Amino acid sequence: MQLELRARAGASAAIRALLDLALPKAALIRNGAEIEVPTSEVLEGETVVIRPGNKLSVKGAVVEGSPLVDESMLTVEPMPVSKARGDTVIGATINKSGAFRYRATKVGADTALAQIVKLVQEASNSAPQTHQTP
After folding, report:
1. Nearest Cα residue to 73 out of 12, 127, 21, 125
2. Which of 35-44, 104-113, 123-132 is predicted with the least confidence, judged by mean pLDDT?
3. In which element (H, E) is residue 18 found?
4. What domains are there in the chain, each with its CATH number?
5. Which long-range contacts (CB under 8 A, 24 or more apart) does 66-70 make?
6. Mean pLDDT in residue range 67-96
């Protein structure tokens, strides 16, 4: 029982660490103006603005700019990846170069980070229970 409790505590800590990667707010272009909204309110198809050093809030496709993106959180690739118009960018990764804009393609529960959290939760909930023998 002790081992199971430790495993569940470890899974809970992993989920908290993953959730800490999520960006609470996103800068968008709405009605021609740049505004800041909670990431949970970003809609598919909206234009997201990312400045140097900022995390990307959701998955999308570059529409303006040529950023270098640190994807090591997902790919463990140590070098930033060069992106161009039309290339996919992933939420929770980091913009290492100039400002750019991208169109949101996966938001909310459809983001890579949300899917990873879901998998960790499912694995934690479906872990076999251990029994002590007398």
Report:
1. 21
2. 123-132
3. helix 2-21
4. 2-125 (2.70.150.10)
5. 66/97, 66/98, 66/100, 67/95, 67/96, 67/97, 67/98, 67/100, 68/95, 68/96, 68/97, 69/93, 69/94, 69/95, 69/96, 70/94, 70/95, 70/96
6. 91
Answer for the pair 92, 125: CB distance below 8 angstroms, yes or no. Answer: no
Cβ pair 69, 95 in contact under 8 A: yes
Pairing of strands 100-106, 59-64: antiparallel
Give the pLDDT confidence of 8-51 residue by residue, as tens digits: 555 566 556 554 555 678 899 999 999 999 888 899 999 999 99
Nearest to 68 by CA among 80, 57, 60, 76: 80
Q: Select the more confidently predicted residue: 128 or 71.
A: 71
